[in-house]
Amino acid sequence: MVDTTLVLPRARRAVAVDTEFVVITVTLIGVLAVGLATAGDYALSVDEFNTDDYGPKALAWYTSAFTDRSHFDTVEAPLWLYGPWFQMLVGFAQSLGFGDAVTIRHAMTFSLGLAGLAAVVPIARLVIGRWAGAIALSLCLLTGYVYGNLFVATIDVPFLFAMSWATLAIIMMARASAQAPAWSATMMAGLFMGLALTTRTGGVITHVYLAGALGLAALDALLRQGAAAWPLLRRSALHAGAAVVLAWIVAVALWPWLQLGNPLRQFAHAHAHFATIATSFEFANWGMATRTDAVPWWYIGGQLLVRLPEGFLALLAIALAFGTAAGLGWSRTAFVAWRRHGVGGLRRPLMALAETRGMLVITVAAVAPLVIVVATGSTLYDGVRHVLFTLPMLALLAAWGAIRLWPLLRRIPIITGFAAAIHATALAATLVILHPLEYTAMNAVAGGVAGARGRFELDYWSLAVAPALRRLEAMTDGDPRFRQRPPRVMVCIGWREQMAGILFRRPWLLETDPKKADYLIATERSPCGRGTGAVLVDTVERFGVPFGWIYANNRGNQN
Questions:
Q1: Is the pLDDT assigned to residue 195 strictly greater than 80?
Q2: Domains in the chain: boundaries
Q3: Quick one: which of 227, 119, 230 has its CA closest to 180?
Q4: What is the largest CA-CA distance in the chain?
Q5: How would you label 72-97 residue by residue, b for 16+ Cβ within 10 Å and e otherwise?
Q6: What is the model's pLDDT at position 274?
Q7: Res 14 pLDDT > 70
Q8: Are strands 488-491 and 509-510 parallel, antiparallel or unpaired?
């Protein structure tokens, strides 16, 4: 007899979808696609001209078995005081000839920078909680100063990458107080601490982060386990030592300067040079003429106040309020416990402090470098690019503020969502309009880009050269005056006029004498067309602000 009972299919198991992971993945892929597609739109920044020379010569030091000294003898001084690992990667990729050298450099720099920003996601998951990583990443990507610099800050971006991932690894090492750090986290910390060291000497501050994080983890273990924790502390100390030793092995292996003598002495020499770098020129800062070697103590704070988006600043203020309240509450609790029970009463407050070590590492990574720069009176210029690596950490603090505020905001979800969407859309639209000058974005405190004109440095990298060159191409293509003899073009980028030919996409002749040039392209820092008799024929503008000027001279001015 045939069984005709209807057999129903088994119900499929519901698959849990991590919405935050999906949103972050889609965002990163989308931004990467946009960045790679537009990498060719950016001119070389002032620093990229010399690192394009530095990278291949540093690579030759290794491929020649340490006999080719062009890395030290024929590059612009003192480039060898920077570790060249990223510049060597770029130089190798450019040598393969798969595309335009400028585009390859910018695509690689942007990809590395985006990877550095992506580190905020696992840091937030470990320390703050869900959605904090998405918030921090969004704040970074919608900050024009961050996004625009990801393409062209040839030393600051690799440093951001190394510092962000080193911070993550250190947090991972100190996460558990009941067991020693995992060797995977230790090796990761050593690698990225080494990359930080060999990018800029300031990377040595990661040793302080490591000591502080593991010190708090040790305190937590001692308070919980007492004398039984000593074997664990010895193992943790072994891991810390291994991470530091690996970091210096990586630094020495990837930094030729350290290979010329005692690595510690060589490192100290480089650190002393950059701590007192003899760069002195005048620039606009809040409408005042300021010298690079005599900036006011509030310079960094003042720059952040006008370069970070309004929402970023608001969330930082909220985080500061919550953090201050938490700190005062902890201090009061500790004081009362001490008054009542003496030193023994501090056990629970100290345990509570040690448990927050992940957040403390983020806070120190965001604030300590800024405080050190201010306290030491370091030479500063070019906005806040020298502390660009602290902005992802500041974004994490802002995200923490948003998460703490969420219980209140969830009562008005429609208003909150609408306000966030409007603000994000306005920021994104500003970046689109500014392209490829996104890094010049200024907030409402400065009056936007238009209000900042003349009061702050905007295009200090001279990136307006790229759109100016594209406009000049449109002007001269098909012009009968240049069919037999191409125009002589001078590109005014401070100290780089003789190298600017790499930016040409036409067989033009590079000129460095404004009197002989048919066209001059002037920039904010190099307004070379003034007083030459050349005629202004076009301007690169954003929000009504001129960033680049095209002047016609000689054959270019003949009708």
A1: yes
A2: 19-404, 465-557
A3: 230
A4: 106
A5: beebeeebbbbbbbbbbebbebbeee
A6: 82
A7: no
A8: parallel
